[in-house]
From TrEMBL:
It comes from Panicum hallii var. hallii. Pfam families: Metallophos, Metallophos_C, Pur_ac_phosph_N. This is Purple acid phosphatase. PANTHER family: ACID PHOSPHATASE RELATED, PURPLE ACID PHOSPHATASE. One of its GO terms (molecular function) is metal ion binding. Belongs to the metallophosphoesterase superfamily. Purple acid phosphatase family. Keywords: Glycoprotein, Hydrolase, Iron, Metal-binding, Signal, Zinc. Residues 157-353 form the Calcineurin-like phosphoesterase domain.
Length: 459
């Protein structure tokens, strides 16, 4: 064989290897076939805390955009009690005091406990605070650490969880996240799945709150509203969407200039996080459309280099489950996110895991035939993380063949983490529930689209 022929064959082999390395992976892993069932009501993770009228379902989220305020929420089951929170730098030095508000709601044949929300303000960045509530009856004490002051090279670790529910698998997901550790959770919607029970049994909102307390009382979770938060049931006389969710889980939307609690933004360390609402109007000139346009103009990549967007219904999804349900929002907003050089878009809704290459489909205008997503270095990576473990089970019907935009997909439950190192690099890792918590089933180093837009979408 001539030297030229050998070189030609070598080049063909090299190109084939590069193409194979860049090809999407449909994981061959198959979890054990078993029912996905909610844990029984007497499970220890649902245990009511001891003591008369003891605060329960304690959870926190940011109270402003930059981490100097925190919203503390809890439920008292027997009587109102008070909405006071005492807080400070040590459990025996709770020298600061805040007075909150309370609310209740009825849902068909259910009446909630007394739901308290208290706003703690003027907090210092990167500081551990202890806080307590339940004065007059049973006092409980917790703690949290505020996020560091936003800055371009401030490291921070997010947990990424969606569609959690309260099954045995949900418990594994939360336990694994606790083992891996994180500073805050970006939650992409579908909390309790109470609406999967007869009459939208709102007791399942209470059990979920007690189940999640072990994490969300100690670090902020950033909430996205999913379809299972709608609780729209005209057959039950319940026609106010999101009633249980909005009574129980406040967001800092006013600080973000939003008119509704379902779309807003926060700045945490080196990340600017935008939360979008898949089930609120987003067409041209709607409040969400106008807000997002203004919000993207406010992003300062010199201060918060990492631009992360949360939503519930994914724009890129190669599973037959909920296929293309996010398409109208993609058509409305994808060009904006590409122009803004967003780094990562997180969604739930589909009960499997999938990560995309950096692709966009902004050229397509219905008649030009350019309907295939194309590689785009300015585009975000899209991750579907709706695999928390809920009662509806795994979505295991991936389309075949795997589309070119899909980098890795697997029909398993799990969670992910995003560990931001500095303005240029972050490590993303997905952990399936069937492995040990520390095992990475899919991982990739991401480079920032503003500071270092290299090719980074292959693990």
């Amino acid at each position: 064989m001539s030297l030229g022929a050998r070189r030609c064959l070598g080049l063909v082999a090299l190109l084939a290897g590069l193409l194979a390395a860049d090809a999407g992976v449909t994981s061959p892993y198959r979890r054990k076939l078993e029912a996905t069932a909610d844990m029984p009501l007497d499970a220890d993770v649902f245990r009511v805390p001891p003591g008369y009228n003891a605060p329960q379902q304690v959870h926190i989220t940011l109270g402003d955009q930059d981490g100097t305020a925190m919203i503390v929420s809890w439920v008292t089951p027997n009587e109102l009690g008070n909405s006071t929170v005492m807080y400070g730098g040590a459990p025996d030095k709770l020298e600061l005091r805040a007075e909150g508000v309370h609310t209740r709601y009825d849902y068909f044949n259910y009446t909630s406990g007394f739901i308290h929300h208290c706003f703690l303000k003027n907090l210092k960045h990167r500081t551990k605070y202890y806080y307590a509530m339940g004065f007059g009856h049973t006092v409980r004490t917790f703690w949290f650490t505020t996020p560091p002051k936003p800055g371009p090279d401030v490291p921070y670790k997010f947990g990424l969880i969606g569609d959690l529910g309260q099954t045995f698998d949900s418990n594994i997901t939360l336990s694994h996240y606790e083992e891996n550790g994180g500073d805050a959770v970006l939650f992409v919607g579908d909390l309790s799945y109470a609406d999967n029970h007869p009459l939208h049994d709102n007791n399942r909102w209470d059990t979920w709150g007690r189940f999640a307390e072990r994490s969300v009382a100690y670090q902020p979770w950033i909430w996205t509203a999913g379809n299972h938060e709608l609780d729209f049931a005209p057959e039950l006389g319940e026609t106010a969407p999101f009633k249980p969710f909005t009574h129980r889980y406040p967001t800092p939307h006013r600080a973000a200039g939003s008119t509704e609690p379902f779309w807003y933004s926060v700045r945490m360390a080196s990340a600017h996080v935008i939360v979008l609402a898949s089930y609120s109007a987003y067409g041209k000139y709607t409040p969400q459309w106008a807000w997002l346009q203004d919000e993207l103009a406010r992003v300062d990549r010199k201060v918060t280099p990492w631009l992360i967007v949360l939503m519930h219904s994914p724009w890129y999804n190669s599973n037959s489950y909920h296929y293309m349900e996010g398409e109208t929002m993609r058509v409305q907003f994808e060009r904006w996110l590409v122009d803004a050089r967003a780094d990562l878009v997180l969604a739930g809704h589909v009960h499997s895991y999938e990560r995309s290459h950096r692709v966009s489909n902004v050229a397509y205008d219905i008649i030009n035939g350019k309907s295939t997503p194309a590689r785009d270095a300015a585009a975000p990576v899209y991750v579907t993380i709706g695999d928390g473990g809920n009662i509806e089970g795994i979505a295991d019907n991936f389309t075949q063949p795997q589309p070119s935009y899909s980098a890795f997909r697997e029909a398993s439950f799990g969670h992910a983490t995003l560990e931001i190192k500095n303005r240029t690099h972050a490590y993303y890792a997905w952990h399936r529930n069937q492995d040990g918590a520390k095992v990475v089933a899919d991982g990739v180093w991401l480079t920032n689209r503003y500071w270092l837009p290299t090719q980074d979408d292959t693990n």
